[in-house]
Design a protein that fits this description.
globular
Length: 139
Amino acid sequence: MTTFDYGPIEFYAIGFDGDKPGPEVLQAVDDLVAAGTVNVLDLIFVARSAEGELSMMELSDTIESASAPALDLAGLASEEDIEELAAGLEPGTSAAILVVELLWAKAFAGALWQAGGTVLSRTSIPAPIVNAYLSEYND
């Protein structure tokens, strides 16, 4: 079986009201890392001021390393990536740009590659939509 150094990665832009997310967001990310589900490659916080100005802060530049998840490839998200992901931010809001390696899919990706397979399409359905649908469906 083919062994990759990294599994598939995903970029997320997670929006928040106000200028920053609460501490529970970092805790949730840290829990995913501790469980071996993901490897955090990069994490950037962005905020759009009331005047429309976009500011960016790399996690590794803002938080003591003991209280934050370790970043394996800090700087992986380019400024262009960040600006594109933050393009829809309204004034007075913020976002976390999270780049994660999907550790659970690493071996699967190697097996697919070895078999000559490739993922042709992937669709993500947000948890609130899944839960609302299943709640209605199961009633």
